[in-house]
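Troubleshooting log. The previous structure file for this entry was overwritten by mistake, so regenerating from the original sequence record. Sequence copied from the archived sheet and checked twice against the printout by T.R.
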Amino acid sequence: MATAVETLDKLERRITITVPTADIQAEVEKRLKVQARKAKAPGFRPGKVPMKMVAAQYGYQIENDVLNDKVGKAFNDAATENNLRVAGFPRIEPKSDDVAEGTVAFNATFEIYPEIKVGDLATADVEKTVAEVSDAEIDKTIDILRKQRVHYHVKGEQSAHGDGGSDLTAQNGDRVTIDFVGTIDGVEFQGGKADDYAFVLGEGRMLAEFEAGTIGLKVGESKTFPLSFPADYHGADVAGKTAEFTITLKQIEWAHLPEVDAEFAKSLGIPDGDLGKMREDIKVNLQREVSNRVKARTKESVMDALIKISELDVPKALIDQDVERLMEMTRQDMQQRGMKVSDTPFPRELFTEQAERRVRLGLILAEVVKANELQAKPEQVKAQVEEFAQSYEDPQQVLKYYFSDRSRLAEVEALVLEENVVNYVLGKAKVAEKSVAFDELMSNNAPQG
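Regenerated output below.
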């Protein structure tokens, strides 16, 4: 039996659940008899163990199970009877005062889903990102692909590709091999010495002062110079201090980039080496990536607009659950990167803001989908999977991957549903196009969706 629903806060409710002890005892005895049929004990045949021994061994656990079942059923019945949409799990606590004789009572405290008010979409301001792929972007991509296939030749040594020119000094783009030793106040420090250390000048792997001290040297030459470590340098022992480095240049290698020819095209998967086909293939791939990033930016703007025009209270229980999910995702990601996280603390407050936004958006999206019948249709899901498959060598394997697993297909359905919401909002809101430069769009901090 459950009492009337008490309102404790905007979303918090409480129900008192009362269960007759006679009902509990009757169910316990029933389950003990079932358990006795298969119970085992030394000196007794299976099913012949005395009931007192069965009760002593299993009674406590069975009584807990019965109590949980009775209270759980009473809570679910009360929630159904009162048309309550329970958010998260109830907190069940024993009640000690005003409990009728022959009964046990519990207080079930819980939150309900909020009422969601989505404002007038016609008042929402949304930025729709647009970007283009021009010949310049294709050329840049080809340069990147060439640099990924670079190989090096010793400067001054004659080879089939030349000797690197007449300048035998270290310059940006060269790979240099050096010995170096650093001191602070005349004392060598940990990590400040290395032999046969190789790096490419101009890539930014070394501090700027170190690279500047190397440029212009010839093989066999040495140079001593001061270097100031930044205050936020990762090495705490030297951060903010000035060291003196001596370097000796042992080898200079110049970068040989492959020519943009038929062999280069074949290395990119163009069987006949046709450069026109290569450029078109690169353009298609760039356009696919640009399209994904443009959609991600536009979606982010739509989500921001929906949050801005919607009114709702967010259940703390759902935020707590999402914080746990985010913490576990972070832990798994760090483990996959080879990091030991068993002893690493994860302050909940680091995830709270993100979790609150995710939950808020989830509730808003569910309301918009329900109110406007924007559920993902099977043909949309199929089309989305086929689109994914186009960027893989064997599209049929990708189709099989998704359609053979319901949980994977559910992920695609969620993406389609979000796209349905985005398109619906774009059709109603005040939309302003924003042109974004290719380099800005492709930067690492751009939204990825």
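The two ends are 48 Å apart (CA to CA). Archived copy saved in two places this time.
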